[in-house]
Design goal:
The complex is a heterodimer. Chain A is built from 13 helices and no strands. Chain A is mostly helical. Chain A has a domain of about 200 residues: MetI-like fold, CATH 1.10.3720. Chain A starts with a helix and ends with a helix. Chain B is mainly alpha-helical. Chain B folds into two domains: about 50 residues; about 250 residues, MetI-like (MetI-like fold), CATH 1.10.3720. Classes of the chains: A mainly alpha, B mainly alpha. Chains A and B meet through helix 2, helix 4, helix 5, helix 6 and helix 7 of A and helix 1, helix 3, helix 4, helix 5 and helix 6 of B. Chain A: It is found in: Cell inner membrane; Cell membrane. Chain A: Keywords: Cell inner membrane, Cell membrane, Membrane, Phosphate transport, Transmembrane, Transmembrane helix, Transport. Chain A: It is a multi-pass membrane protein. Chain A: One of its GO terms (molecular function) is phosphate transmembrane transporter activity. Chain A: Part of the binding-protein-dependent transport system for phosphate; probably responsible for the translocation of the substrate across the membrane.
Chain lengths: ~325, ~300
């Protein structure tokens, strides 16, 4: 109906110019291209749906064997043993401990760097430091894993003599340093979007740069900074190679950072390295673990996205 | 007397505040130094361990049981081919989606859904993409542990990066360019193809390079699809001597890539293999750093050159 209308208007219009076909064809081409572009954009939604579909599909068969209650409360995770236990808790504890250490490193350091670069540093320092931090963020995670295992762990063993060769501590520390650029660049973005006149007002009242940064700029940029922190959490939880290499792959229900333990991601890697038949229960466990991981990161991502959107709108 | 006392107190307060200012200045520099020092430590550690292994033979030998004769030939060939698949599939799709969201999309719920979705996809852990690929590409579509499956997996991973870069590059073009084009009778697509895309090309290119640099170093999703770690042969050549001169057999060939090869060597207990890992890591880091530096340089030049 719509295109018929268009056709008739095109005909009417081109009667005067005498170039009927051209105009109509042109319009068709426009619509066709728009459709192609729409499909491309829609493809990203398709990816999300297939991720969710795939994880849920395999997890459902898994949960037919294992009750959700057992999955959430059993204190052992030994799906590949004869005496199989399917409790996600040991993997969650490994993930929580390594992420907590990483955040303890990344959040204070990242925030300090962001405040320094946004409020204190001269133009030259900023122009050099920012690309450098960006390069640091571009280093492959496997290289950080190598660094954690062969440099940081021996270094820590000097301080803590009975630290094992694999530990949550060294993996977490390196992961924290890895996330610093991520935190600092997003926090700095949030702080720079605070309008200049707020700072000028504060300086006019006699405040120092530090007071201005802490009491004026940071509260004004609060939602942006919070978003940066939340996205950093999600990044730490989903990080794979550093923990797979440096924290060991032994599921271990512990809150002690000097022990070795597996995270959710490390478990998936461990299973994938072996040769599990398609459709076996071991194969399904990685999808159940993946679904748990996706749910955790999804919550943080959505929260971070909403907060970021809010600060973008305010200023 | 009391006035002087007050003045004295005030001076003390100011001095204290200035002191804290200085303390923070120093701690800010220290925090930055920690980041820089870590980088230096990481690089020197790899250089010390890996540099002696770097030779022409290292690039032209297959991995081997004997550490001193092992090399990364199959790894860098695999990385190149996988990146080719990734680039060919992610770039057109990402640019098209970016154009749609920035220029065509009406402001409605559906558009917002796509936008939230793209932002979320960028935050999904890479290993989840690996699980998707394992279920979808490897088993459902029957691609197996092939170069094609790995390339498509990494393409999904960098798609959000390309989309966001495209959108930001197009958004920075002033509205006057569009109006000028429309005023001369151009259609929407003509405006996009003849004006917006050429002007945003450096920005989009920057995003593509950063995305590909990330894809080169990704290990977890490739492990998840079950790529073999010991490959001592090359995929079939894409160029043939007889008609039609090109062959796509390599797409379905098993493969290994640089980070997988490095992971394999890192997890060996023998120390000699870890020297190999350091050497492979050095190559990997130099590759990603070079790509990132190129992207940063491009963006820097663009910012300097273009003044609307």
């Amino acid at each position: 109906m719509y295109s018929k209308n268009i056709k008739s208007t095109c005909e009417k219009r081109s009667r005067s110019t005498g170039n009927l076909r051209y105009s109509y064809k042109r319009h068709l081409r426009e619509k066709f291209i728009e459709l192609l572009l729409l499909l491309a954009a829609f493809f990203s939604v398709l990816i999300t749906f297939s991720i969710v579909f795939m994880l849920i599909k395999e997890s459902i068969t898994f949960f037919q064997h294992v009750s959700i209650w057992e999955f959430l409360t059993d204190r052992q995770w030994t799906p590949l043993f004869d005496d199989a236990h399917y409790g996600i808790l040991p993997l969650v504890s490994g993930t929580v401990v390594s992420s907590a250490i990483a955040l303890l490193v990344a959040l204070p350091l990242g925030t300090t760097i962001a405040i320094y670069l946004s409020e204190f540093a001269s133009y030259t320092v900023r122009e050099i430091a920012k690309p450098f931090l960006e390069l640091l963020g571009g280093i492959p995670t496997i290289v950080y894993g190598y660094f954690a295992l062969l440099f940081v762990t021996p270094l820590l063993q000097i301080i803590i003599p009975d630290l094992p060769g694999f530990s949550l501590l060294s993996a977490g520390l390196v992961m924290g340093i890895m996330i610093i650029p991520y935190v600092s660049s997003m926090t700095e973005d949030a702080m720079r979007s605070v309008p200049m006149h707020l700072r000028e007002g504060s300086y006019a009242m006699g405040a120092t740069r530090f007071q201005t940064a802490i009491k004026v700029v940071m509260p004004a940029a609060f939602s942006g900074i919070a978003a940066a922190y939340i996205l950093a959490i999600s990044r730490a939880v989903g990080e794979t190679m550093v923990v797979a290499i440096a924290a060991g792959m032994q599921p271990n229900l512990t809150w002690n950072p000097t022990e070795q333990a597996a995270t959710i991601t490390a478990y998936i890697v461990q299973v994938s390295l072996g040769d599990l038949p398609h459709g076996s229960i071991g194969y399904q466990t990685i999808f159940a673990a993946g679904l748990t991981l996706l749910l955790i990161t999804l919550i943080f991502n959505i929260l971070g996205h909403l907060l970021r959107k809010r600060y973008r709108e305010t200023y | 007397m009391s006035d002087e006392k007050k003045l004295e107190e005030l001076r003390l307060v100011i001095a204290r505040h200035k002191f804290w200012d200085l303390i923070f200045l120093i701690s800010g520099m220290l925090a930055l130094m920690i980041a820089i020092l870590t980088f230096i430590a990481l690089f020197t550690q790899m250089l010390i361990d890996g540099a002696p292994r770097l030779s022409w033979d290292f690039f032209t030998s297959f991995p081997s049981r004997r550490p001193e004769s092992a090399g990364i030939l199959s790894a860098w060939v695999g990385t190149t081919l996988v990146m080719l698949v990734t680039a060919i599939s992610a770039i057109p799709l990402g640019i098209a989606a970016g154009i749609y969201l920035e220029e065509y999309a009406p402001k409605n719920l559906f558009t917002e859904l796509i936008e939230i979705n793209v932002a979320n996809l960028a935050g999904v852990p890479s290993i989840i993409y690996g699980l998707l690929a394992l279920g979808l590409f490897v088993y459902q579509l029957g691609l197996g542990q092939s170069i094609l499956a790995a390339g498509l997996t990494l393409a999904l991973l960098i798609l959000p990066i390309v989309i966001v870069a495209t959108r930001e590059a197009i958004r920075s073009i002033p509205i006057a360019i569009r109006e000028g084009s429309y005023a001369l009778g151009a259609t929407k697509w003509e405006t996009v193809a003849d004006h917006l895309l050429p002007y945003s090309a450096p920005g989009i290119l920057t995003g593509i390079i950063i995305g590909l640099a990330r894809a080169i170093g990704e290990t977890a999703p490739i492990i998840t699809i079950g790529a073999l770690t010991f490959i001592a042969f090359l995929p079939p050549s894409p160029i043939k001597s007889e008609f039609p001169f090109v062959s796509f057999e390599w797409l379905t060939a098993p493969f290994t890539v640089m980070p997988i090869q490095m992971f394999n060597w890192v997890s060996r207990p023998e120390e000699e293999f870890q020297f190999n890992a350091a050497a492979a890591g050095l190559v990997l880091v130099v590759m990603t750093l070079a790509m990132n530096a190129l992207a940063i340089y491009l963006r820097y030049r663009m910012r300097k050159k273009i003044k609307w």
